[in-house]
Sequence to fold (180 residues):
Amino acid sequence: MIFSLIILCALAVAGCATATHATLAVYSQPPGAYLTEVGTGRALGIAPAASYYERQVLQNHKDVQGCYVVKGVEAHWVSGARAMTDPVRLCGSATGSYTITLNRDVSYPDLEKDLQFALQLQAIQAQHDAVRQQAAMQLLLHNMHAPPVQPSQLPMPPLPRPSVNTNCFQIGNAWNCTTR
Fold:
């Protein structure tokens, strides 16, 4: 099992060497706004969320300063408050990681609804993290008490398929990898 994990991690890291996307991490203040792309309505999800842009497509959207221009983002909070960005300028690499934060206007009514929703999301995330940590601890304890595995008992890793591409994107300290 450990051998399989090592192989899987090595393949993931190898796929990350040739990044083909730029990543835009979108946050809201307070957290929990529903995010959409301006002009298209494409859902990005609940903040924090990420949007990915193909390097080749970005090349067609360069401004005179050499920055890549992508569609803006709109945030909708449960109170009905909204915030929107103009088109976003990504200045740097076409495969870089970028971050924006949309701030709620505090003068809009029902701020407490949005703060309460943010607390609920935080509690759900903490619960999720606790379950994952408990599962990892159980797996560790199980493996500590399991009889040693002989190399001949380890499963052989699958042969790599040439048509599979693994793309990884880093958002802060987190990595998101997809295989196609």
Observations:
- Residues 21-145 form one domain.
